[in-house]
Amino acid sequence: xxxxxxxxxxxxxxxxxxxxxxxxxxxxxxxxxxxxxxxxxxxxxxxxxxxxxxxxxxxxxxxxxxxxxxxxxxxxxxxxxxxxxxxxxxxxxxxxxxxxxxxxxxxxxxxxxxxxxxxxxxxxxxxxxxxxxxxxxxxxxxxxxxxxxxxxxxxxxxxxxxxxxxxxxxxxxxxxxxxxxxxxxxxxxxxxxxxxxxxxxxxxxxxxxxxxxxxxxxxxxxxxxxxxxxxxxxxxxxxxxxxxxxxxxxxxxxxxxxxxxxxxxxxxxx
Length: 270
Fold this sequence. Notes:
One of its GO terms (molecular function) is sulfurtransferase activity. This protein is of the alpha/beta class. It has two domains: about 30-120, Roll (Ubiquitin-like (UB roll)), CATH 3.10.20; about 135-270, Cytidine Deaminase, domain 2, CATH 3.40.140. Helix content is about 25%, strand content about 30%. A hairpin with a 2-residue loop joins strand 5 (about 30-35) and strand 6. The radius of gyration is 19 Å and the shape is globular.
C-alpha cells in the first residue's frame, strides 16, 4: 500500500441515488512534531512521508539554519499520538533558536500561523541574482510532473505538490503533502541536501500546485531559487516580496501560458 493513505468504508451519492457502501482511499494526516536538540519547536499537520526533507526544508525556510551542515542528525520516531522528528543542531544554531520566542500551532492551510509579531513575518530577503533564463516553450509538459509525484493525491485527490525543474524544463524532483507549505519545504529540503552532497548550485525553477502566497515566495527566495511558477493566483504581498527579492513570479501557469507578475526578463517565448 502507498505510504500516506488509508481505506475507509463509505457511502456515495451518484446521480441522486445512494450507492452501496464501498472502500474509499483517504490521505493520511498526522501531527508531526519538529524537535530540536530535545526541545519541541512546532507541530505541523502533514502527510507522513519524506519527513527528513521536510525537517531540512523547514529549518532553512524558517532561518533556524543557514546550511544543511548545521544539522548533525535527523531521527524519525512514530508515537501513539503522531510522529516526532528529532533534529540535532549545532550548538550555535540551537542557542540562537532558543532566543526566539516562537509558539507555532501548525495548520494545514497557513504557513505563518502562530507567529507572534508582524516583524517576524515581514523579514528582509537579500535580492536574488539574475543568472537564470528560461524559454516558456520548454515547459509545455510541466503540469504533468505535478500529478506524477502525487502518489497519494492520485488516489485521494487530497494533496498539493511542488516540483523542481531544470532551466530547460526537465524534471529533477518533486514532493507532495496535504499542506502546500509542507510540500514546498520537502522539495527545498531535498534541493539543499543534493546541493550539499554535490557541492554545486543546481539551477532551476519551482512549480507548485497551489496559489502563490507571501510565505511561498518567502520560502522560495530564501533558498536562492530565482523563478517560481504557481498554477493559481498570486497575492499582493507575494508580488511585493517577489519584487523586493528580485524573484520571477508567474501565476495561473498552464504549460505555455501564465501571468508574469515580476521580473519578466528571465523568461522568453522561444
